Q: What sequence folds into this?
């Protein structure tokens, strides 16, 4: 029976806000997804950025079979005690040798810990659907992307991106919005697989995130009005309820790689399959 640790970098007030809007914190969403994919697994949640969180050592973390880092509003290029705690946690993850996986801010935390650079996206946010993600030459044969076609769409919402991968990292996928959509990072004794998008999220959660950030999306030039953002959120939420609808897929310009739940979660499924061989 595997034991997984989900590390959420949302702070307490951010977790409560997300629960009010989406029903779960980022860590709770990850736990629910993992329990669906691996019903027999034991899944624990930690909040290492919190002031009162216990500090994990590499010895503590070595008892887990895999560690997952969630997305969050955290900006890892800000010099705060919360960011420092999260980076200290990730250093311990790498030192433990336990394989790890992360999405969005989780990828950025791993990259920054290993010596790479993260920045605010200079041109625009990527919100709702990340379009035309394509594997690099290395990515086409990497097990993280096993089963993906040459190009695919994925749920995404982020205003930060990886500017520079650290030494020991491999770029696995990119698209027109951001260079690093998927990567492997090897640092100290550990291996991390990560994506900038959100394979763990249901499309309904993406719809909620769009509504919550409607003003920011208008300011970023992605929409002309909050009403326009809400209209797109309504379409995405409808796809959540009717993933097989040909009309909704056509209207949103997506296929089963995004609409089908298991296809959307492909990277997490692949990581769970290969994690035992990464130690």
A:
């Amino acid at each position: 029976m595997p034991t997984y640790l989900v590390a959420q970098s949302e702070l307490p007030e951010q977790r409560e806000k997300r629960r009010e809007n989406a029903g779960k914190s980022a860590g709770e969403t990850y736990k629910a997804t993992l329990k669906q994919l691996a019903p027999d697994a034991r899944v624990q949640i930690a909040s290492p950025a919190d002031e009162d969180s216990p500090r994990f050592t590499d010895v503590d973390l070595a008892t887990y079979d895999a560690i997952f880092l969630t997305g969050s509003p955290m900006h890892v290029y800000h010099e705060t005690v919360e960011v420092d705690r999260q980076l200290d946690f990730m250093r311990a993850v790498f030192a433990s040798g336990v394989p790890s996986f992360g999405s969005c801010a989780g990828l950025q935390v791993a990259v920054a810990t290993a010596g790479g650079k993260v920045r605010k996206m200079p041109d625009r946010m990527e919100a709702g659907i990340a379009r035309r993600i394509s594997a690099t030459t290395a990515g086409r044969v990497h097990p993280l992307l096993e089963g993906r076609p040459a190009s695919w769409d994925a749920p995404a919402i982020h205003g930060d991106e990886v500017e520079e991968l650290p030494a020991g990292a491999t770029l696995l996928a990119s698209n027109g919005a951001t260079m690093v959509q998927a990567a492997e990072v090897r640092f100290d004794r550990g291996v991390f697989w990560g994506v900038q998008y959100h394979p763990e999220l249901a499309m309904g959660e993406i719809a909620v995130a769009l509504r919550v950030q409607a003003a920011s999306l208008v300011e970023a030039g992605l929409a002309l009005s909050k009403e326009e953002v809400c209209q797109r959120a309504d379409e995405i939420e409808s796809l959540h309820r009717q993933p097989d609808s040909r009309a909704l897929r056509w209207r949103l310009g997506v296929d089963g790689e995004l609409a089908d739940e298991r296809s959307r979660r492909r990277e997490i499924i692949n990581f769970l399959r290969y994690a035992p061989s990464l130690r």
Summary: DSSP finds twelve helices and eleven strands in the chain.
